[in-house]
Structure formats: structure tokens, C-alpha cells
Amino acid sequence: MAPWRSLCKSCRSTTTTATSALRRTETLVADLRHHLGLSEGQPLELAPPSRAARQFVERLQWLARERPLLLLAHAYTRYMGDLRGGQILSRAASKAYGAGGTAFYDFQLVGSSAMELKAFKKRYRASLDELRLSAEDADALVEEANTSSS
Q1: CA angle 21–25–26, rounded 5-degree value
Q2: Level-2 CATH architecture, domain 2-148
Q3: Residue-wise pLDDT tens digits, 46-60
């Protein structure tokens, strides 16, 4: 939970409008509430983040302060993964656990059909391709993307 909250918060002021359509914190909270059987008024109490999650959050916070451009690497890796594989995971979770608890994979501001998702991904990639980056920034962005998925 902490990494998603940090990524969404960090990206809020540094990335594109397209990324704002992909924010997942609220949907993740809704899914957690569903799976934990919590009603709207009940507090959502989570265990402290793991050491790895804390380190990831610290990295995102550092990037937001020092190298905000590199947050795009994390946004791309996370959000595009959710748009690709998330639809498969959503169907599998619904089949295994019943209705509800899959809001994380519902991209209402993007669309729900395969065609809408594909068009959005194409526009998102095009917006990144349009960035005028120095060779140094482009290399740093690729390096950060490679480490963001490990």
C-alpha cells in the first residue's frame, strides 16, 4: 500500500495528464476494504511496510525531490503492467473469489474495452516519445525503468 500511495503522490505534480487517469491508491484501498470485510466507516489498519517497501518509498520520495523526470520510469512500468496483465488478473480474481475486490484493475478514466485500453497505451507511449530528452536523461530514464521492475 505504501509504495502505491507514494508513487501516486510523487507523480501527481510531475507527470502527464495521462498518468492521472491511472492513479490506483483509492481503488487499492477499496479492494483492501472489500477483502478484509470492512465497511466504509471502519478504519483500515495495515501492518507496517516491509523493509523493501520502505526502501522503495524512500527511492520514490528521493526521485520526487531530486530527479522527478525519473518517476516516469516507475509510472510507466507500474501502470502499463496494470493495464496489460491487470485485466487477466482481474478476471482470475473474480473467478476465484467472486464479485468485488477488483477495483484496482478497473480503469474508468481510460476505458474498459480492449480497444480503449490499447488506444490509451498508444497515446501514453506517444506522450513519452514526444519528450525532448538529452541523451543523459534518456539513459537515466531507461536505467531507472530497468531497476524499477526488479
Answers
A1: 85
A2: Up-down Bundle (1.20)
A3: 899 999 999 999 999
The answer to whether residues 3 and 53 touch, using CB atoms and an 8 Å cutoff, is: yes
Distance CA(106)–CA(34), nearest Å, equals: 15
CB 126: neighbour CB atoms within 10 A?
A: 10
* Contacts (Cβ under 8 Å, ≥6 apart) of 150: none
What are the domain boundaries of the chain?
Answer: 2-148
Residue with cell 516507475: 74
Span 18-45, pLDDT tens digits? 567 777 888 889 999 999 999 888 999 9
DSSP 64: H
Is pTM, for the whole model, over 0.85? no
